[in-house]
Amino acid sequence: MPSKECSFYLYGHDKSTSSKKFLNGIKNIHVIELDTHKVFHLKYPINTDSYRLLRTKIGM
What we know:
By secondary structure, the protein is mostly beta strands. It has one helix at residues 48-52, and strands at 9-11, 22-24, 29-32, 39-42. A hairpin with a 6-residue loop joins strand 3 and strand 4. The N and C termini lie far apart (48 Å). The model has no long low-confidence stretch (mean pLDDT 76).
């Protein structure tokens, strides 16, 4: 747990933790309105995980 209190904690390498305050960038793209602290969750484009892991198709 971080030592300082923050409005949001942003990270992207741990799939196990998520909450309104802890925003995991590996699951979604997060857009935060600075005035209201409202968070919008956008899905990554199709095949993003495959490109992250450098997966390629095998076969014809």
